[in-house]
Specification:
303 residues, FAD/NAD(P)-binding domain, seven-stranded mixed beta sheet, five-stranded parallel beta sheet, 29% helix, globular, binds flavin-adenine dinucleotide
Length: 303
C-alpha cells in the first residue's frame, strides 16, 4: 500500500486549486480522477481574469500544469472506496492501487447516477441500498443484485461476498465495462453478470423481486445501486459523513465531520460555479495542510 500525505479526489477546478495550494506549501499531494465535466469545448465567460473567454479544456489544462509545476502528482484513476485506517488516516482503493492517506479532499463534483426504475424511491431503505459497507450486513445469506456496469459495481459485488454468496450483477441494459482482472475475480466467486434492464421493483412489504424490461422476473432480497463511478455520496455513506441531501456538509474551512476529510466544489453544493469551486479548493487545502502538518509530520517527520 502506497502512503501519501494528501490525496485529492477530483481533477476539476476544486481539486486542482487545492493541489496548487498544498503542493506549493510542500505537502506531498496526489490528485486522482479523470477529466472534469467542464474540460471540453465550452466557452467560460464568467471566470475572473479572462475577458475574451477561455475554453473549459484550456482552463483545466492550465490548472493541471500549474499544480504539476509545484510538484503535485496527477493520475487518471477512479476511486472505488474509502475507509478509515485503523490508526488514523484513510485507505483509498482505486481501480489500480491502494493508498493510505493522512488527509483526503473530496472534490468529486455531483454525480451519483440513479437507474431509471419506475418505483425506485418506494424501495429505498426497504430493499434498495447504495452502500455495501453500511447495509450489506442486513443481507446475510440473502439473494442480492448489484446494478451497475463498471468496476465500481464489480467492487461492490465482491464486497457483498462478506455477507452472502448469492450475488449477481445486472448492468441495467448497458454494455459491461468491467476490467479483465475484476472479471476474473467475479468468475472465480461465481458472480454472474447479465446485461438486462430492471424496469420495476416488486414486493408488498419490501423488495421480493425485480421485473425486467423484457417481461421476465427474478426473485431478489436486495438491490445495491453502483452505476457509473463511485460518487461523494457513496464515499460519505461508507465513511459516515454528514450529508445535506446529496451534498457533503462542511464548515467554513471545508472540514467535514471526520478529521482529515475535507470537501470542496460542486459536491458541497453551495453555488455550482468554477469560481466557487476554486475558492473552496483553496480553503480545503489550507485546512488539509494544517491537518497533515499536525498529524503526519509528528508521526513520519515528513509532510
Ligand atoms: C457544460 C458545462 C458548462 C459549464 N459552464 C460553466 C461556466 O461557464 N462558468 C462556471 O462558473 N461554471 C460552469 N459550469 C459548472 C462548473 O463546471 C462546475 O461548477 C465545476 O466544474 C465544479 O468543479 P468541481 O471541481 O467541484 O467538480 P468537477 O469539475 O465536476 O470535477 C469532478 C472531478 O471528480 C472526479 N471524480 C468523480 N468521481 C470520482 C471517482 N470515483 N474517482 C476519482 N475521481 C472522481 C472527476 O473525474 C472530475 O475530475 C459548467 C458545467 C458544465 C457541465
Amino acid at each position: 500500500m502506497r502512503k501519501v500525505s494528501l490525496l485529492i479526489i477530483g481533477q476539476g477546478p476544486a481539486g486542482l486549486s487545492a493541489a496548487i495550494y498544498s503542493a506549493r506549501a510542500g505537502v506531498q499531494t496526489l490528485v486522482l480522477g479523470c477529466a472534469s465535466k467542464v474540460a471540453g469545448d465550452y466557452d467560460i465567460d464568467n471566470y475572473f481574469g479572462f475577458p475574451e473567454t477561455i475554453s473549459g479544456r484550456e482552463l483545466i489544462g492550465r490548472g493541471m500544469r500549474q499544480a504539476q509545476r509545484f510538484g503535485a502528482e496527477v493520475r487518471c484513476e477512479r476511486v472505488l472506496s474509502i475507509h478509515q485506517a485503523e490508526h488514523g488516516g484513510y485507505h483509498v482503493h482505486t481501480e489500480q492501487e491502494e493508498y493510505e492517506a493522512c488527509a483526503v479532499i473530496l472534490a468529486t463534483g455531483v454525480a451519483r447516477m440513479r437507474p431509471c426504475i419506475d418505483n425506485l424511491q418506494d424501495y429505498e431503505g426497504r430493499g434498495v441500498s447504495y452502500c455495501v459497507s453500511c447495509e450489506g450486513f442486513f443481507y446475510r445469506n440473502k439473494k442480492v443484485m448489484v446494478l451497475g456496469e463498471g468496476n465500481f459495481a464489480a467492487n461492490q459485488a465482491l464486497e457483498l461476498l462478506h455477507y452472502t454468496q448469492d450475488v449477481r450483477i445486472c448492468t441495467q441494459g448497458k454494455p459491461m465495462d468491467i476490467a479483465a482482472a475484476f472479471q476474473d475475480r467475479l468468475r472465480q466467486a461465481g458472480i454472474g453478470i447479465q446485461e438486462k434492464k430492471v424496469k420495476t421493483l416488486l414486493g408488498a412489504d419490501g423488495l421480493d423481486a425485480v421485473l425486467y424490461a423484457d417481461g421476465t422476473q427474478e426473485a431478489v432480497d436486495g438491490v445495491f445501486i453502483a452505476m457509473g463511478q463511485a460518487s461523494t455520496a457513496d464515499f460519505a455513506a461508507s465513511l459516515g459523513l454528514v450529508m445535506r441531501k446529496q451534498f457533503v456538509e462542511v464548515d467554513a474551512q471545508q472540514r467535514t465531520n471526520l478529521p482529515g476529510i475535507f470537501a470542496a466544489g460542486d459536491c458541497v453544493g453551495r453555488f455550482l460555479q468554477i469560481s466557487v469551486a476554486v475558492g473552496e479548493g483553496a480553503l480545503a487545502a489550507k485546512a488539509a495542510i494544517e491537518h497533515v502538518k499536525k498529524q503526519c509530520l509528528k508521526e513520519n517527520g515528513t509532510a
